[in-house]
Amino acid sequence: MGDTISFPHLDYAALWPMLILFGAACVGVLVEAFVPKAWRNTVQLVLSLLAMGAALVMVIKRAAAGVTAANAHTASDAISIDKAGLFLQGALLVLGIVSLLLIGERTLETGGPFVAQAAITVGSEADRRQAARESGATEVYPLALFALAGMLLFVTANDLLVMFVALEVFSLPLYLLCALARRKRLLSQEAAVKYFLLGAFASAFFLFGVAMVYGFANAVDFNSIHANISTSDKPFALLLIGLAMLAIGLLFKVAAVPFHVWTPDVYQGAPTPVTAFMAACTKAAAFGGLARVLYVGFDRSNWNFTPVLGVIAVLTMLVGAVLAVTQTDLKRLLAYSSVANAGYLLVGVLGGGAAGLSSMLFYLVAYGFAIIAAFALLTLVRDADGEATHLSRWAGLGRRSPFFASVFTFLLLAFAGLPLTSGFTAKFAVFGAAIGGGQTWLVLFGVLSSIILAFPYLRVIVMMWLSEPGDTTPSVSIPGALTSAALMVGVLVTLLLGVAPSSLLDLANNAASFVR
Amino acid sequence: MTLATEVLAAAGQVGTGEKVVFFILAPLAVVGALGMVIARNAVHSALWLVLTMLSLGVFYIVQTGPFIGMVQIIVYTGAIMMLFLFVLMLVGRDASDSVIETLRGQKVAAIILGVGLAGLLGFGVYEATRGIVPVGLEGANAAGNVQGIAKLLFTKYVWVFEVTSALLITAAVGAMLLAHRERAAGERVGQVAMMKDRFRPGNYPGPKPGPGVFANSTSVATPAKLPDGTPAERSISPILPTRELTAAEIANKPTEGK
Predict the structure, then answer these.
(1) N or C: which terminus of chain B carries fewer CB neighbours within 10 A?
(2) Which pLDDT score, from 0 to 100, does residue B215 have?
(3) C-alpha closest to that of A245 among A276, A218, A206, A284
(4) What is the per-residue pLDDT for B74?
(5) Interface contacts (A, B; CB < 8 Å)
């Protein structure tokens, strides 16, 4: 055993954000053990917010110090914290902070949106007691921190194995968080089991794909895959099978058709703050990973996967839009709309080049803020049984509380992509990138599905404003400070990115480069 | 170490012994996997899975991965599966799955599509790997199998190796969150208190009548009848929904010696 091994150089300046989040999550687990119950929620919330804020500061510091090709890679090239990676990390942290505000809300109902003890049998006497009185489980904070840390690693993984571990690290806490709703617990548990089982299948596909790619390229890191794609003497079919299976794993996470079937059930069953977190952050992380795989690892395969992914993008946009029309539950409606939005994002990714990448980055941020604000509003409209998400219950809401109905109308118009909202700018950027990349057919389908998708949004708006409020129309609760903050940030950013998008567009354009 | 060296020496070409091992164990592994899915009983499922895992362990060893093979057998088959079986036995294994299809024809469609996908992938991989000579096993094992793995774990993958600890913490926290029930101070009742409660005035200390006793029905939702023919509400569990009784069920059972 003659050769000695030397420990690789770890660039701690680049790894600090992840270290802080993992560390804070571990401290959070200890808080559960040692801090008295009455204090736990406050301590956990402050700890999580501080950790995310500190991680964000570290990301900004590193971005300000400048990222070059020389200092992007660390840990023996297993991790690549380049400009796009840093942008995604920053975006994930900001979106994570805003959704954490929703997770921390405790004033809307006694004990907050999470169940106190998930082990108590649903519907039993003890369950009714805990739903009425006990404060929600505070383990959700460390779990959210673990998920976010996994996402930060996922978007900067420079190696398929690292990517796989990161995928598991951010998925596992999400499966758990889905099962912890205070109301409609059976639905919530069903959502968690579905998400877990299907997610496990998707992970298995991903791993199988890694094996195939290794068989072709004799390596699992993106640099070697890139280098070996044109020189390998193995049959190209191996690479294609591998890429297809990798894509299945990743497209499952972004909820692209036909791997979207979990989305409506999970979005509906999960506690609404967790749904917001998943819709904003999981989508951003999964698209970041997908873009890195396609742009860094498989760039030299001449993008001959474009037609296949293009068909998936078209299916995603059309199926998402058409099924959104038929929904009668607002959470499911937003879930299908998020499926359709995954299609628009795919269009941007397939646009290729720096334009495609920057449009995707911009879209992720714009969509993330809007969807968090929309779900924040959903948590406010409630009756005695919790949130009233059925569409018919929202009829006449505009007469009863015009302010919140106006805000929701604005958000729906942003999803529909009307000018002066971030939705317009984002869609414009994505479609522009696709036309620039010679994928005009995708844009045609994109515009078509946008028109279809405008219908369910407009139907909600018409219902809110033009119907008479009935006896069963729920009231809009006065949001607590945390929800107000999340809602305000989400709406302001949606407006700002519609009116003056240039600063974020510049940021995205500057960040739109992966270091190989 | 002798096993490892023998195995390492065989790297490069597929020997007859390896072929024999493969063609005996591969069908067994597939049978085990199918058995795990098809078996109704959870314990049987677990035992089928053990068969598959053992076969896989042998495959790893044959393919010059003695470390991963041994880990597969010792850790997965030996430790994890046995723990799993213990838990199944302790919790009780009387629950069997409902086999009612909620979506019509779903099972048939799933089987057809699954076999189709397996055929597509199997054929694709077979075509793609035909005639390829395996290389690189000697290089990977040059300094020893365990040493090679250690080198990768502590150099290139050191960060991600540390990160896997997050997975373990998440799993532990999650298991506790979903399964642990904290009992409040007043909720746990001691034996003396239970006994006093049972014999306090006004309480009937004997066992409750079973449901359906002296009634013309065996349903647990039918109340038992007291000797005077009135229903005994105490005999039904409070969590059961109230059941509409038919005239035949309300009628008294002819027990007067007819």
Answers:
(1) C
(2) 61
(3) A206
(4) 94
(5) 120
The one-letter code for the residue type at A244 is A
Please check whether residue A10 touches B, CB under 8 A: yes
Q: Judge: A26–B169 Cβ closer than 8 Å, yes or no.
A: yes
Between β-strands A475-476 and A386-387, what pairing exists: parallel, antiparallel or unpaired?
unpaired
pLDDT in tens, B19-52: 899 999 999 999 999 999 888 888 888 999 999 9
Q: Is B41 helix (H, G, I), strand (E, B) or coil?
A: coil
Could you tell me the two tokens for A360? 């995707």
Average pLDDT of the residues in A220-235: 88
Q: How far apart are CA B238 and CA B232, in angstroms?
A: 12
Q: How far does Cα A345 stand from its chain's mean position?
A: 12
Identify the burial level of B144 via C-beta atoms within 10 angstroms of its C-beta, where 0-12 means exposed, 13-18 middle and 19 or more buried: middle
pLDDT above 60: residue B3: no
Is the preceding peptide bond at B209 cis, omega within 30 degrees of 0?
A: no
Percent of chain A topping pLDDT 90: 73
Listed range (A118-122, A151-155, B58-62) with the worst mean pLDDT: A118-122
CB contact under 8 A, B151 and A238: no
CB contact under 8 A, A1 and B144: yes
Give the 3-state secondary structure of residue B224.
Answer: strand
Give me the phi and psi of A475, to 5 degrees please. Answer: -95, 160
Handedness of CA A441, A444, A449, A450 (dihedral sign): positive
State the pLDDT at residue B8.
47
Examine the pLDDT at B1 and tell me if it is beyond 50: no
Q: What would the DSSP string read from start to end of A415-466?
A: HHT-TTSHHHHHHHHHHHHHHHTT-HHHHHHHHHHHHHHHHHHHHHHHHHHH
How far apart (Å, rounded) are the C-alpha atoms in residues A508 and B31? Answer: 52
pLDDT of A205: 95
C-alpha closest to that of A457 among A401, A491, A409: A409
- Stated as kind and residue range, the H or E segment containing A483 is helix A481-499
Q: Kindly list the domain boundaries of chain A, sorted by start residue.
A: 300-510
Query: Residue B155: exposed, middle, or buried by beta-carbon count in 10 A (0-12, 13-18, 19+)?
Result: middle
A190: Cβ–Cβ under 8 A, 6 or more apart, which residues? A265, A269
Indicate whether B164 pLDDT > 70: yes
CB contact under 8 A, B180 and A119: yes
Is the reported ipTM for this assembly greater than 0.85? Answer: yes
Q: From chain B, pick out residues whose CB is under 8 angstroms from the CB of A238.
A: 125, 128-129
Select the residue of A25, A146, A162 nearest B160 (Cβ to Cβ): A162
Q: What is the mean pLDDT of chain A?
A: 92
Of A366, A171, A359, nearest to A282 (Cα)?
A171
Q: Is the pLDDT of residue A339 over 50?
A: yes
Question: Cα A221 vs. chain centroid, distance in angstroms?
Answer: 25
In whole angstroms, give the CA distance from residue B54 to residue B24: 13
Residue A383 pLDDT > 90: no
CA dist B242 and B221 (Å) reads 7
Read off the pLDDT of each residue in B107-120 and give the average, rounded to a whole number.
Answer: 92
Indicate the pLDDT class of residue B10, thresholds 50, 70 and 90: very low
CA-nearest of A251, A445, A412 to A334 is A412
CA distance linking residue A40 with residue A43, whole number of Å: 5
The helix or strand, by DSSP H or E, that contains position A275, with its residue range, turns out to be helix A272-277
Cα-Cα-Cα-Cα torsion A449, A454, A460, A466, nearest 10 degrees, comes to -150
Residue of A nearest to B150 (CA): A5
Out of A83-87, A200-204, B31-35, B64-68, pick the least confident.
B64-68
Chain B residues in contact with A119 (beta carbon < 8 A): 178-181
Residue B92: the pLDDT is: 63
